[in-house]
Write a structure and sequence with these properties.
By secondary structure, this protein is an alpha+beta fold. It folds into three domains: 190 residues, Histidine kinase-like ATPase, C-terminal domain (Heat Shock Protein 90, 2-Layer Sandwich), CATH 3.30.565.10; 121 residues, 2-Layer Sandwich (Ribosomal Protein S5, domain 2); 272 residues, formyl-coa transferase, domain 3. Helices cover 35% and strands 21% of the residues. It has 20 helices and 22 strands. An eight-stranded mixed beta sheet has the order 5-4-3-6-2-1-7-8, covered by helices on one side. Strands 9-10-13-11-12 form a five-stranded mixed beta sheet, sandwiched between helices. It has a four-stranded antiparallel beta sheet with strand order 16-17-18-22. Helix 10 packs parallel to helix 11, helix 14 crosses helix 18 and helix 14 crosses helix 19.
Amino acid sequence: MPVIARLPDLLISQIAAGEVVERPASVLKELLENSLDAGSKAIQVHLEEGGVKLIRITDDGCGIAKEQLALALTRHATSKITSLDDLERVGTLGFRGEALASVASVARLTLTSRERGASHAWKLRGEPAAEPEPAALMAGTVVEMRDLYFNTPARRKFLKSESTEFAHCADAVRRLALTRPDVAISLTHNGRSLFQLAPADPGRRIADILGEEFIGAARHIEAASGPLTLAGFAIDPTRATDAKDGQYVFVNGRFVRDKIIGHALREAYRDVLHGSRQPAVCLFVNIDPALVDVNVHPAKTEVRFRDSRAVHQFVFHAIQRTLAAPVQADTSPRPPLPAQGIAAEENASSSAASRPTWTPPYEPPNEAPRQASLGVAEPAAAAYLAFARAAQNISQNPPPHPDTLPQFVPSGTASPEAPPLGYALAQLHGIYVLAQNARGLILIDMHAAHERILYEKLKTAFDNRQIATQNLLIPAVFSADPLDIAAVEEHGEALRDLGFDIAPLGPNQLGVRSVPALLQSGDPAALARSLISELREHGITQLATAHRNELLATMACHGAVRARRQLTIPEMNALLRQMKETERAGQCNHGRPTWTELTLDQLDKLFLRGQ
């Protein structure tokens, strides 16, 4: 029968190394975490051949005493936990005591360290029966790993190319650099310096690592609730890309790939991302260490929260509130933005401050304004309508002197009360609204903007069960198959809750008698067809719960003002003012941008003014 025998210590360490040391980047991460835990303020990383031939980490931390060097290379030897209570409140990056022992079992490891206050440094090679020997070192520790997997060629053949392994190593350095902006970090590969990061504030470090474009295209997030705090940046939805590697999430300074937080991110961006685009974020979650278990994965890239639902809701609502913020004027200086995207920011300058601003445009008296049909009327639109009607009623009197009418007159300096979306000027090809604000030209996709406005109003009305209906003078009749008619007859009451009164008018016909008041300008038959299609596919229960937002988005799309429809100036301004009051007004229901801005400086560059 098989004999049970104890494995040799070296084999035990090599088996354990399979969990900790996946590739050179794994070694680099573990060694960097030890350097940061040692209180280092400057760390130098030297790599050769993607980290396979050499990884050398030099830090200025507290160092290791001579008599503890050999112990540091022993499995499960650590200075960071001494009891179960310490394990339940881990406050350091490394704590398992496996890294050095695992690396020493599959590579040639040399440890040189000088404890603070010691007369000189000591060096220890990771070999059996090795003894420390004197060495020269100013302060801190130098860990040198050479020839990864030299004694386990079966594992070495699974490593990728030098460039791939180096890319993983560089990513590991960047992640840890994001968590500690107060630490200077440099990276050299094959004798070539890749970057040198000086100590900086968190925002500057994020810009150094992720780029000025990310900071310029992202929204700042700060939130707190009890033991939870969240800070960082989340990409503006219209600036998102298809890249799937742009999410940096840290829990208590530890980079993690957490399913709970990942799901909260997807839910927060669900209504505002276009197509397959991914949300790029750099988020720092801080929580009481007793409420999170970081000891659930050998590489410590996964965590488990004691109350995962509370963490999910906290992250979800914090990001959702940030993305839902209405359109606001932003005059604070920010890093330069790329040319594409919404609201490209203009750096404050004396030349910009000296530019003239303009008063709202005047609607010609001979234009008969239609009743605004873009939703709830508002004071700005009402004022324009009243002014235009009054101008039409003075045909018996001589026209006023031009100086008494509103005109495009420079007003000196920008008014802080000026709307961020400005005032409408004209309509382009019946698709885009042109407006001007204090900084330049605004272009609005009127269908996309109106679609978002209707969508948010429908969600509010649906949640409050206050969907107002509008009866049609003449029912809208359309052809339908027997399954459509059966679905309408079965779910008539639920359809009325959604604001629709649809009834059979014949063996192959349905008639729409009323629609939601918010969608009265849309095509009733098209609205009814899309609703019945969703009803047949998902059922009324699913439509009211899981697919509720998809249904309301479809209704808003059909009810929004269509392209080629001519709008009056009051209707355009009513649209702009409603965008100002609408959450997530920067994107339509499909994630497309609803507006963009061209500043006067950008227009000057376009026309080579001053060059």
